[in-house]
Amino acid sequence: MKPFLHLCACRALSSVVALGANIICNKIPGLAPRQRALCQSRPDAIIIIGEGAQSGINECQYQFRYARWNCSALGERTVFGQELRVGSREAAFTYAITAAGVAHAVTAACSQGKLSQCGCDRDKQGYHNREDSWKWGGCSADVKYGVEFSRRFVDAREIKKNARRLMNLHNNEAGRKILQERTKLECKCHGVSGSCTTRTCWITLPKLREIGYLLKERYSEAVQVEPVRASRLRQPSFLRLKGARGYQKPRDTDLVYLERSPNYCEEDAATGSTGTRGRLCNGTSTLTGGCGVMCCGRGYNTHHYTRVRQCNCKFHWCCVVKCSTCSEKSEVFTCK
Ligand SMILES: *[C@@H]1O[C@H](CO)[C@@H](O)[C@H](O)[C@H]1NC(C)=O
Ligand SMILES: *[C@@H]1O[C@H](CO)[C@@H](O)[C@H](O)[C@H]1NC(C)=O
């Protein structure tokens, strides 16, 4: 997945963006109308959004580095990289992690004073609890602001009134919810020699890596859903668990999907699969990441590398260092 914002991802360009918001916002491919409007009214935020989406994609690539699907897709480039056409659990993961990535980046930027309309969480100032004698101090991450911003921007791309829209919105929300649940209270003690007579506390953001691992777990437990058409317009109005008796909603933090995943073995324009040809694999593992699974039985190529380096270095009086050279052999495997 290629990010959309390398055209203005570097800081030096931010002033240019402010001057030419119109030009820049019109150049970003695949923005929905409401996203373009938000881009024009908040050009400072669009850079942060781009960075947030990019960290989401990076995290996705990290989490799936040993899987057949490596977080890439064929097809049209959009705001958040290439979109998976199939409403699969992989698509679910990408939506959740980018929505969380954007909320995370915006919240962090607020705390660092990088955005004009937000800062530290103002509700978390002054005394919290006089009896326990701790009070809010430092800078509490205003995760509510970041989440709301992610909602406004990321969710605005869902313009088609179909089941996939409901799926995407649910997964976006799941990603943001998991981020919100993972904020932590951190405290510092004050008092004579660490006696902790008073404490100041603040809310911190989790690392996006932590959210990546949690969403990966959600991904393996993702639930299949189907749309329910409740309105007279026959448009899908909400989702329910597929195959469940009666009506059962998915949980807020579940990742949901509509369609089974392809096997991602071969390149396929219809599903967006890039296939696994040329992927690195592990020659000794029989699990995911092993060449058997990764190469789908097509076999693999072995590449031999030799690396020469200095080793066994000894110091001789006085003053020379003598080393011998060692060569290390390594093998790398790639799928046929
Ligand atoms: C994912 O795999 C495809 C197909 O082998 C490859 O072209 C692409 O560069 C890989 N992407 C990443 C991020 O590793
Ligand atoms: C390959 O898999 C084995 C067993 O799972 C593991 O011990 C080894 O570190 C892996 N090798 C690489 C290069 O990742």
Automatic annotation (TrEMBL):
CDD domains: Wnt_Wnt7 (cd19339)
Annotated Gene Ontology cellular component terms: extracellular space
Keywords: Developmental protein, Disulfide bond, Extracellular matrix, Glycoprotein, Lipoprotein, Secreted, Signal, Wnt signaling pathway
A Pfam family annotated for this UniProt entry: wnt
Predominant place of localization: secreted
Gene Ontology terms: biological process: animal organ development; canonical Wnt signaling pathway; cell fate commitment; neuron differentiation; positive regulation of JNK cascade; tissue development
Secretion signal, residue range per the UniProt entry: 1-20
Top-level lineage group: Eukaryota
Entry function: Ligand for members of the frizzled family of seven transmembrane receptors that functions in the canonical Wnt/beta-catenin signaling pathway. Required for normal fusion of the chorion and the allantois during placenta development. Required for central nervous system (CNS) angiogenesis and blood-brain barrier regulation.
Name by which UniProt lists this protein: Protein Wnt
